[in-house]
Every structure is written in C-alpha cells, then in structure tokens.
Target: Periplasmic binding domain protein
Amino acid sequence: MKRILCKCLAAFSLSLPLLTHAADTIVVGQAIDLSGPNADLGRDYVAGIKTYFDVLNTKGGINGRHIQYLVRDDRGQADLAVKAVAELVDQAHVAYLFGGIGDDVTRAVLNSADFKRSGLTLYAPLAGADYQKDARILFWRPSYQQEIRHIFSHFDKLGIKDIGVVYQESAATADAYQRLLDQMKESGIKLSGTVHLSKDAKQISKETAALAAAKPGFVIMVADTVSAGVFLKEFRKLAPQTFVAGSSLTNLTTLRQLAGGKAVEWTVFSQVVPNPGIGSSSIQLEHLNMMRKYRDEPVSAMTLEGFAAAKTWIRLLQPGKRVAGQPEYVIPGGGFDIGGYMMGESAGSNHLSNYVDIALFNKASGLTY
Model:
C-alpha cells in the first residue's frame, strides 16, 4: 500500500495543475526527491510535513487562511530541482519554499536566478553544510559538524581513539568530509586508514582489505547510501564486528537492501530527532497520533522531522499577512519550545535545532535509540 501511495504522490506532484490561489490561501512549495536515490527519505519527509498541514487546515488554517502544499519531484538531481523551483516561484507563485535533499541540490537552488529573484528563504532542506549567514537559507536540522561531533563523543566514551574513514568524493559530500577532518584534528583522533569510493572496484577492494587489517576502533562513512552499501557489504566479509557509523541522511532501507541484513549489524547512525516510535514528549505523541489519523504508512525519523519542521515553520511566521520586503521568518529571542524540544536557542545560527542522538541499526530493520 505504501509503495502504491508513494508512486501516486510522485505522479500527482508532477502533474498537479497550477491553480489560481484564493486570497485566503497560503501557498507553500517544495522540490524534493520522490523517485530518485533518496526517494524513501523524501516521501517520508513530505508525509510528515503534509500531516501537520492537514492538522492545521482541519483547525481552520492560519488565521482563517488554509495552506496549499505543492510538491514537485526533483529526483534528487540539481538541474531538475532548479527547474522545479522556477516553476513553483514563477508559475505557482508560492509564498514560502521548503528545501530538498542534499547539499548539491541545495546549492544549485540557492544559486539559481529564479530563486534569487524570488526573495524567498529556502526553509528546512535535508542538508547540513556550512552556508554563509547571509545566504537565504534556514535549516531546521543541526549541521554535519554537530552530527560528526556527537558520533565522536559517543565513541570517545568507549575509549576509542582511532578510526577508519570511508569517503566518496562528490559535491554532496565535500563539506561533510572537511568537517570530519576538522573534528578529527580537534579530538586528537588517529586515522587508521581511508577507503576512497571511486569507480575503480579493485582499488576499493584493496583499500577495504587494508582498513579491515588495521582494525580501527570504528569506521565513519561519508558517502551516499548506494556507495556506503557497496562498501559495507565488502567490509563485513573481513570485519564483521567493527562499528560503522553514518549520518542521519543515510537511507536505511536502501542500505539494508544493498548490504544485506548481516552487514548492517554493528552499524550506528546519528539522528536529529528523538525516537519516532514512542510518545515520551508531546511532539512525539502528537506526531504518532496524527500520522495514524491522516496517513496509512509507518512513522519514521523522517516523518517526525517533517512534522516538527512544519510545526516550527508556523511559529516563525510573521503575524498577519506579509508585506513586500518583510522577512518571512522571525526567530523569538531565547528560542521556543515545540513540544519538549527547544528551537532557535543559538543566536545568529541558521540552524534552528541542536538536537542530536545516536541509534543502532538492529536485526529487525529498525533503529534502537
């Protein structure tokens, strides 16, 4: 059922006719991967955002104005993201714009002529590189550096001071890799070896064998999910019980499919939201209840992140109708609570949340927090 619904969502987002928007409608647009390499992440993120907007519209919207949420599939490709954003801005006349997945897509949108001309701010992309503070971007999630720092802190408590690095050189991973090197230097971490994920299969195999022989305390992957899965499958033949760590933007469904169930044991991932499957805070409970009410698919970290990002978005809006030249968002001084979690506490930061946790990929294909 979920797969059928996701396919329908992707098709709908591409074929949706441009509407004449009523004065009592707030139009929100988003270009995101719904059918490409990170489609599972994108569809879940959209499901969480849409669920919160459905809740809000059922209650009458924002001061009587309902939210119209337009989603376009960019397939995870920068050029398609730029094209989709241009359509949302120039033809759909969106008043607000949520971001997509990955730093290559995010940078392409920020640098596009249509986006620059729009005067909009790109809100809550699933990316984490460091951007200039004057860039028109506002993140909901923490940065790569915060995630990497938390992973290092976790293993430091176990007394581990040597690591292996798996790196796929690309525009999407360059910032994360630099943040990793900076954190290693800051933490006094010893490098046991590096695997460069290139097109040379023999070289990858040789470097993987050398890394396994070095017996690092843990291995951290800076790579897209497909390349990480290929590495993990090979590495586990040689080092079945070495911890391997990844970021919150790893597509766990795809990783397991590529590497196999045994290979993903002893893997851990940073997470930027609390456990989505329990109701230990009010936003977790609200997310669980509303997903059951409005969706027929399981909850995930991404549905919770989308739900939380949408709820935060509402709190940042200017009161009343925005006038020309007025900024879209105002972050309350000292931050604000969204149901057990504080947002916007770091003054001057373009990352609203500082929350990072770590979870173990378990045998049941889920995460143990």
Q: What stands out?
A: Residues 1-20 have pLDDT under 50 and may be disordered.
